[in-house]
C-alpha cells in the first residue's frame, strides 16, 4: 500500500487544505469549481477542439461543456457506439451544439495515423487538443505494436497524435491569430513511479512490471511531454501553449481494473474526492480561460498552477523521453 501513502503525500505537498475546503486559489477557482463555472461567460464559437476519450467520464463532461460554450467538438474515441451516445446526450442538452465523432484507438499507432487522416479530410481548423483518454492500473499486456499498454495508450498514442496534428494547429494559430492550446491530462500519480522516473530499458519488461508504478510512469511522461513541447514551441515562436493537469480523484470507468480497491480507498479518504463536473474543471479552465493566454509549460491542479515532482521538472529527462518516444514510434512498421 506504499503507493497510497505516496499519493496522499503528493496531495499534502500540493495543498490539501485547498482541496478539502474547496477554497479558491490565485486563479479564483478551486477544487469545488465545476467545468461550467470556470468557463462561464467564455465564447468558444469558432474554435475547433479535439477531446480524446470524449465518450465517457471526464472526457464527456469536457466535451459537453466546451460544446455548450460554442466550440466545435470532435470526440475521438475507440468505441464509436459509446461516442455516438455521448454526442446524442450533448445534443439533448444543447440542441445547437456542434459535435462530431471519429474513431481513435490510442493503443494503436496505425489507428492514430488513420484518425489524423480522417480529421484532416474534414478540412477544419484546430485550436485546442485535449489529450484526455487513458487506461489505469491494467494488468501487463502489450499493444499490437509491442508496447506496454499503459505507456502506449497514455503517452505514446498522445505523443504521436500531437505530433501529427501540430502543423494543423500552427497553421490555424497563424491565420486566425488565436492562440492554440494543448492540454495533457496527467495525475498526481506521476510522483509514484519507478526509481529512475522513466525506465527506458524496461518499458516492455513483464518481470519488473508493477501496474501502479507503470501508470505513474505514463502520467509522468504526460507532464514531461507537455513541458518539452512547450519549450520547443517557445523556441520556434509558435502561438501555441502546452500544459498538463491533474483532474483530481474521481471515480470513473478509468478505474475498472481496481474498482474494489478504489471504493475502499474512497471510503477512507472521501473528503479528497471530486465529482465528474469538478474533475473536468481544470482541463476546461486550461483549455479555454483567457487569463492563461501565453501560459505554457505549467502543471495545474484545482485550476491553479502547482509544482509537480522533481522528475517532472527534469529538463534532461524530458528531452530523453522525447527522443525515446520518436525512436519507439519509428520502430513500428508502417502499413
From TrEMBL:
SUPFAM superfamilies: NAD(P)-binding Rossmann-fold domains (SSF51735). Gene3D superfamilies: NAD(P)-binding Rossmann-like Domain. Pfam families: adh_short. It comes from the Eukaryota. Belongs to the short-chain dehydrogenases/reductases (SDR) family. This is Uncharacterized protein. It comes from Trapa natans (Water chestnut). The lineage of its organism: Eukaryota, Viridiplantae, Streptophyta, Embryophyta, Tracheophyta.
